[in-house]
Write a structure and sequence with these properties.
Number of domains: 1
Strand order of the largest sheet: 1-2
Structural class: mainly alpha
Number of helices: 6
Shape: globular
Length: 158
């Protein structure tokens, strides 16, 4: 294995670890948080100390963005309040499902990272040296496009 392949493998490993941590963190955070004041979140053990809004669009322009409401939606789902979750953001369940499905996938990718890339079966038809890279990119691109489509629908319906 040459130096370029080793660097690519290290980069892949760090990406897989990052997404794995995100997939583990989001559901756990959803269990530790609670929705307060209809549009704010706080720790369950300290509901009177709500977090400030972190959406730059909301803070600067007093307007939501395509992702506004996802955190609250995930918190509602993690507490079994599906109707409230769908009312806050229609795609919160999908974002949570994609993140949770990343957990076994990233464990698998990290487990088999030692095997040289050329010996692994390719999961994509691209000439990219990273198997599955195009498919993973397609998943995230589709999710972002769905968030934007949902945003346009929310604006159109008022």
């Amino acid at each position: 294995m040459n130096e370029a392949e080793a660097t690519t493998g290290e980069n892949q490993c760090s990406v897989h670890w990052g997404i794995l941590m995100l997939g583990l963190f989001v559901p756990l955070a959803g269990l530790m948080l609670e929705v307060v004041e209809q549009d704010r979140i706080a720790f369950r053990f300290s509901p009177d100390q709500a977090f400030p809004h972190v959406c730059l669009s909301r803070v600067l322009f007093d307007a939501g963005c395509p992702a506004c409401g996802l955190t609250r939606s995930v918190v509602h789902i993690m507490h079994g309040r599906w109707n409230e979750s769908l009312a806050v953001h229609r795609l919160g369940w999908l974002v949570l499902a994609v993140l949770v499905m990343q957990i076994p996938y990233r464990f698998y990718r990290l487990r088999y990272r030692q095997k040289p890339i050329k010996d692994r079966p390719s999961l994509s038809r691209s000439s990219d040296s990273r198997p599955g890279f195009r498919r993973e990119g397609t998943l995230w691109t589709a999710l972002i496009l769905l968030l934007f489509v949902d945003y346009v629908i929310r604006i159109a319906l008022g």
